[in-house]
Structure to design on (280 residues):
């Protein structure tokens, strides 16, 4: 059986990971991209028409999962979202923000799948993607995008470096040293849910399962324990530097670089070194 991959963009990392999942199914793989404003139901309709009876695969992004959920509803076929492996009609998929790997059987003749983010390498196959332009009459669609006010600073989602703080920062005022380090690195400041729940930072700064998912070159986790719901938001980072007072903290299991100690001493010390380097 062949598979049709829905690409959010030809160079979109999660879409290219979805291509790898589609290729693992063993049949021919074709791809579609969709032009025009985001309209999940209309996009799904266009994908259903393009797919014929092929399996349909999408990226495990917010849009990928939403569009394929509409595809599933229109075809009355179950969607297996955030899949890490497929064995015929059986899948392994990530559930509960990464805390559980579920093995499930698909009760349908065809497979609708999204690829769990970063469970697959990005494919380097040179797929020709057909560009679809669905009819939007009457469809729910996005009519306006309002960018969050970042006060001229780099946004959390786009930042190459994220300096993130958890309960260990201790207070809203405690974030001043993280802001200072972030300014030196042209980084964005993120935080854990404990921090937003305490009102130290706005929800827009939260990284994790119920916050923003970031994929910077470097994620600096300061006073963050490494709960799975937090890691779900930063596991796309290329490198993770953890600063934590507790040598047993779970975050160290995810870290490329570890500093054990008090962040209130370590973060200003890093900033001081950076200032010296930048002055020369
Ligand atoms: C459904 C659900 C969704 C959730 N979604 C999210 C989410 O999107 N994002 C998220 O972050 N969490 C989320 N959570 C919460 C998550 O489970 C954790 O409770 C949270 O991430 C913990 O935040 P923390 O690491 O800041 O705090 P803690 O777990 O309390 O860790 C604080 C860390 O700081 C260290 N520390 C203390 N003082 C210092 C110091 N002076 N110097 C250095 N280190 C120090 C400690 O050793 C500890 O490791 C979710 C939970 C649920 C149930």
């Amino acid at each position: 059986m062949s598979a049709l991959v829905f690409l959010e963009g030809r160079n979109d990392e999660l879409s290219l990971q979805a291509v790898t999942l589609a290729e693992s199914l063993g049949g021919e793989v074709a791809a579609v991209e969709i032009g025009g404003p985001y309209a999940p139901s209309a996009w799904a309709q266009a994908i259903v028409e393009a797919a014929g009876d092929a399996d349909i695969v999408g990226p495990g992004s917010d849009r990928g999962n939403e569009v394929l959920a509409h595809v599933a509803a229109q075809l009355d076929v179950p969607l297996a979202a955030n899949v890490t492996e497929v064995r015929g009609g059986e899948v392994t998929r990530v559930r509960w923000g990464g805390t559980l790997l579920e093995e499930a059987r698909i009760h349908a003749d065809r497979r609708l799948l999204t690829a769990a983010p970063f469970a697959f390498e990005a494919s380097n196959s040179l797929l020709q993607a057909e560009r679809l332009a669905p009819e939007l009459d009457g469809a729910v669609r996005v009519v306006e995008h309002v960018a969050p006010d970042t006060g001229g600073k780099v946004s959390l989602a786009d930042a190459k470096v994220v300096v993130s703080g958890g309960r260990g920062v201790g207070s809203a005022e405690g974030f001043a040293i993280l802001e200072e380090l972030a300014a030196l690195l042209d980084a964005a400041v993120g935080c854990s849910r404990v921090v937003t729940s305490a009102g130290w930072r706005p929800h827009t700064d939260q990284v994790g399962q119920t916050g923003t998912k970031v994929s910077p070159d470097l994620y600096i986790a300061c006073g963050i324990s490494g709960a799975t719901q937090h890691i779900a938001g930063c596991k796309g980072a290329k490198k993770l530097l953890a600063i934590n007072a507790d040598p047993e903290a779970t975050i160290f299991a995810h870290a490329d670089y570890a500093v054990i100690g008090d962040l209130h001493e370590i973060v200003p010390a890093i900033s001081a070194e950076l200032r010296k380097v930048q002055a020369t």
About this structure: The CA atoms of residues 56 and 270 lie 48 Å apart.
